Amino acid sequence: MMSYPEVHLHIDGRWIEKTTSGFLPIANPADEAVLGRFPVAGEAELAAARQAARRAFATWSATPAFDRYGVIAKAAALLRERAGRIARILTLEQGKPLAESSREVLLSADIIDFLAQEARRLASRGVPPRSAGVASQTVMRVPVGPVAAFTPWNFPVNLPARKLGGALAAGCSVIIKPDEETPASCMELVRCFADAGLPAGVLNMVLGRPAEIADALIASPEIAKVSFTGSTAVGRMLAEKSARHLKRYTAELGGHAPVIVCGDADPVATAALAVVAKFRGAGQVCASPVRFLVHRSIYAAFREAFVAGARALRVGAGVDDGVQMGPLIARRRVQEMARLVDDALANGALLLCGGTRLARPGFFFEPTVLEAALPHCRVQQEEPFGPIALLDAFDDLEEAIARANALPYGLAAYAFTRDLGTANRLSASLQAGMVGINHFGISQPETPFGGIKDSGMGSESGLEGLLEYTDVKFVSVAA
Length: 479
Known about the structure:
Layout: E1 9-11, E2 14-16, E3 23-27, E4 34-39, H1 43-60, H2 65-81, H3 83-94, H4 98-120, E5 125-126, E6 134-143, E7 147-150, H5 158-170, E8 174-177, H6 183-195, E9 203-205, H7 210-218, E10 225-229, H8 232-244, E11 248-252, E12 257-261, H9 267-279, E13 289-295, H10 296-312, H11 331-346, E14 350-353, E15 368-371, H12 378-381, E16 388-394, H13 397-404, E17 409-410, E18 412-416, H14 420-429, E19 434-437, E20 452-453, E21 456-457, H15 462-467, E22 470-478
Parallel strand pairs: 7-8, 7-10, 8-9, 10-11, 12-13, 12-18, 13-16, 15-16, 18-19
Antiparallel strand pairs: 1-2, 3-4, 5-6, 6-22, 11-21, 14-15, 17-20
Helix pairs in contact: 2-4, 2-5, 2-6, 3-4, 3-6, 4-5, 9-10
């Protein structure tokens, strides 16, 4: 097995091995061993990163989109070339199976490519003037300015790729702070950009104590926009800080996705798809399906197939062959799964499988299926963000839609039906930023990813993700 790389900061084109603020450890979630450590950015490093981003923005924003595309496309090509190595690093620090890590890295390259290509096509819009004395009126998109980007540990390459792809393609400079539990994956992504010839200061990476870094970056006059992916609670906090300084803000937050399985759906085939989607990444996916509402006429068949599929999953270290579900990221997440299950069972829910931590080193929790958990249970109200699925039956479609929309979350929702009219009805009625009908593949490089209600504001990826890093400028020229 390859060794874990030394983790450095990246500021103004230089790799920084140590700081006066010391180091913090990085753990392997599959065996709890220390993988390595990272240098903590202090006031001096954060100030240097801000100044570098400010200086570099002046030149990068003036670089033609075609030339920016050339550098970014080369970075995407390097990411593909290095995908095998980066995927193993990702699995070591995050835990997901190697096959999932490989798909994440390669998809990240596609995301970066698409966003850079869209920037080449970002056209201005002419508006016919009302007055004969006005020669032209033009609406154009211009880069918003230096960006502070914050990403979590569950997709440590994919989520930075969305932010970096959009921001850099638009002409912005960036200071990215990946999660300190998975720093090397993002570092290797940053290295691809540096090796591709991205000018010094355009992309900087810092690590340290999250609250201190957020405060220092968001309050800084050098930063024009904040982009965050993570929990709703932290997203609210950063939204308040950004609003205090009138900073542009994009947030992709938590979810609690419902799945409505109608009576005309194939229960066994749908259950097979659902098991894969539910337990991908050990359920540590913001768009993960959680609440399965199944028509009573096919409920028994769906339940049997879903539980059998969950029990058959091979759980283990992501680097091992044949593993289908890896560990949770940390001990705190295992403890939270146990609390959610205990609360549901105490309130009358039925445990169909799983429900406990695996008796082995590492942060492993069994694929868990609960039935008939009451609406007021914590797991029905709070995003579990782990390998817990909730099954329940419904009789009336309107009832199922009402239950699906009952929570304040609105990131993703899914439905399965063979009837076109029902599909259209569900598409219109489900309150979510993304709706998947008859499949779970709602995230593609070309499509926007984002939620409504308490699941965030704005979008990542797609043309909409690129536009998040631009301002509108109107120019009117008199004859």
